[in-house]
Design a protein that fits this description.
Layout: E1 2-6, H1 13-24, E2 28-30, H2 31-41, H3 44-55, H4 61-72, E3 81-84, H5 90-100, E4 104-109, H6 112-120, E5 122-125, E6 131-133, E7 152-153, H7 160-174, H8 176-184, E8 187-191, H9 199-210
Parallel strand pairs: 1-3, 1-4, 2-3, 4-8
Antiparallel strand pairs: 5-6, 5-7
Bound molecules: adenosine monophosphate (AMP).
Adenosine monophosphate binds at residues 9, 30-32, 35, 52-53, 56-59, 64, 85-88, 92, 157, 166.
Length: 214
């Protein structure tokens, strides 16, 4: 299956897409994770994109598309993919059509008050990148990753100023692709306005929406 998960920052893209990956047996690909990994390793890609991530602005399309093209050539993508955070612009969506067009696009619809609440209570492991949310996905030990015991920190782009810029980028550049996929007839919508919905419950609902039996 080729699945794209789209939604505003804080809508749960990473939470759901990463949990759907072992169920649907296709790799979970987060362009945000790829960029963050390159920044922390100090690669030339990392140096190019750091300023965009830190400020909350989108990375230019040509850089992002190259990254995705390279990732899709890896053997684990032969049966499909789950994208979290790609495409984020019409240009990216059009490019994806040329390489490996999605079968279905899942749009996570969440009201803005809930996005802001979620983002401000989110922490990430400095070491392995696992995401926690102090509202509904708490670590066992405060401030420490359950998986690797790394330190849990706030993302640099989760300051109030950067959050505002990210929401604005989403409204301006990403929202139009919802219409694009709707017109193609492949858009499915998962609406959630609950603050404390457990990820497993959300995954169950999404599988129903996608018509997938576990
Ligand atoms: P995310 O982890 O998906 O919230 O992405 C974090 C940041 O990475 C975004 O705010 C952008 O700066 C950058 N980014 C991730 N995916 C893309 C994309 N498809 N296009 C442009 N920039 C991206």
């Amino acid at each position: 299956m080729r699945l794209v998960v789209i939604g505003p920052p804080g809508s749960g893209k990473g939470t759901y897409a990463s949990r759907l990956s072992p169920i649907l047996k296709v790799p979970y690909i987060s362009t945000g994770d790829i960029f963050r990994e390159n920044i922390s390793k100090g690669t030339s890609l990392g140096k190019k994109v750091e300023k965009f991530l830190n400020s909350g602005l989108l990375v230019p399309d040509d850089i992002t598309i190259e990254v995705v093209k390279k990732r899709l050539k890896e053997p684990d993508c032969k049966n499909g993919y789950i994208f979290d955070g790609f495409p984020r612009t019409l240009k990216q969506a059009e490019e994806l059509e040329k390489i490996a067009s999605p079968d279905v696009v899942l749009y996570l619809s969440v009201p803005e008050w809930l996005l802001i609440k979620r983002i401000s209570s989110r922490v990430i492991c400095k070491n392995c990148g696992k995401i926690y949310n102090l509202l509904n996905v708490k670590p066992k030990k405060e401030g420490i990753c359950d998986v690797c015991e790394g330190e849990l920190i706030q993302r640099k782009d989760e300051t109030p100023e950067a959050i505002k810029i990210r929401l604005n980028e989403y409204e301006k550049k990403t929202k139009p692709i919802i219409e694009y996929y709707n017109n193609k007839g492949i858009l499915k919508i998962f609406s959630n306005d609950k603050l404390d919905l457990k990820p497993e419950e959300g995954v169950k609902k999404i599988l129903e929406i996608l018509g997938v039996r576990k």
